[in-house]
Amino acid sequence: METEEGEDRTPLLKDSQPGTVPACCSARYNLALLAFFGFFLLYALRVNLSVALVDMVEPNISLAKNTTSNVCPEHSSTRNVPRNTTGEKYSWDADTQGWILGSFFYGYIITQIPGGYLASKIGGKLLLGFGIFGTSVFTLLTPLAANLGVGYLIAVRALEGLGEGVTFPAMHSMWSSWAPPLERSKLLSISYAGAQLGTVVSLPLSGLICYYMNWVYVFYIFGALGVLWFFFWMWLVSDTPETHRTISHAEREYILSSLKDQLSTQKSVPWRPILESLPLWAIVVAHFSYNWTFYTLLTLLPTYMKEILRFDAQENGFLSALPYFGCWLCIILSGQIADYLREKQNLSTVCVRKCFTLIGMIGPAVFLVAAGFIGCNYALAVAFVTISTTLGGFCTSGYSINHLDIAPSYAGILLGITNSFATIPGMVGPVIAKNLTHNNTVGEWQTVFYIAASINLFGAIFFALFASGEVQDWAVSGYHLHRN
């Protein structure tokens, strides 16, 4: 196996000597940058509701179900800034709010596999573009839907999920034609890091918009930006290097020659070998486990900070965003490190993917459990949760792009499969956590953190045992001929 990888690597390095195809201003890095902004907006559109919801609900309603714990003293600096209270208020109880927050994932899970399949047929550009455009339009309609009734709001959120569901498979599908193997970690970590930064910016920003303006503007501002991005995307991007208008000849040749033996010309999808592939199931388990922690924290961190640590909403917005800022930095850096190790240190792809996944899943598990045990030490609680989420960023150069290592031609479809399983924690995790924390005691939250940590640990070990870094036999052209 090692020798094959060595042979694979040499031509890539000859082509990628500095000066031949610089990264700066190249078509592939422009694509990564535009994708970065696309995923930035996508996550801003996804998380803005969890902040706005606090302002949309009549204050005494949500406490009927889950009571604030008095373990920790009140912790907030009082501000004398007048708070805007013009926004409409609704009387939704805790269960209804759970349904509103969860409805997004019901749409999101449906379009994962169809998204990957469609991307392989019509190309990722249109699919990703219209996915984000559709999500933006439904975001603009959110205030209207809330006024019409809770059913309409749930429907609009589910439709947003449908639009967002195609985006990751579409992006993976585009990178299978655009990313030279030894630049995969870099290019993909740049484009997907937008998701973390979108969370970082939109959590506090949505809080400020609610505080000084009115919650409806949370949806209008982010929705309008999404529509604007769509026009830039359609104008500047193309599905493959061959069809790009302004790409240099040298860059086109470099990308195409580096992917020469990795892509399949086969039109039909080898569904059976895909579903029987153990390396794919290793990614599924890792992806599911990682998302359990990620989604539990994403939807419930503001609640934990408010009910247990007793921060006020404004501090809460900034502190809730801090862990994702750490994660964003980690994703960008780990992408550079991963490709450096593969290119300069000659580490095998599978070794890099496994190591990064282990760091990115066991690290968070340890710090998450620790966060439940430090009582009311605010600084430590925030630090531990931040370290936990930051280390998770290593996974982007681990299991997260392993689809492109094992089957570049079908990467979109594989991501659709793993992301379908990985969306289940988004639907189930927060609901279970809400049910476990009715009295909001520290002990109840420790249980939530324990569950997340053990799932993470299991996922990491499973991936380390069964993952692969080689292109699988069924994913290259000759395979079908051999079979027949």
Extended strand count? 0
Q: Indicate the overall shape.
A: globular
**Structural class, from helix and strand content?**
mainly alpha
List segments where confidence is low: pLDDT < 50 over at least 5 consecutive residues: 1-19, 480-484
End-to-end separation:
25 Å
Question: What descriptors fit this protein?
Answer:
single chain; 484 residues; mainly alpha; 20 helices; 0% strand; disordered N terminus; disordered C terminus
Question: Which SSEs are present, and which pair or pack?
Answer:
Elements: H1 2-15, H2 27-56, H3 94-110, H4 112-122, H5 124-140, H6 142-148, H7 150-165, H8 167-178, H9 184-212, H10 216-236, H11 249-258, H12 271-275, H13 278-307, H14 313-343, H15 349-371, H16 378-392, H17 402-406, H18 411-436, H19 442-466, H20 478-483
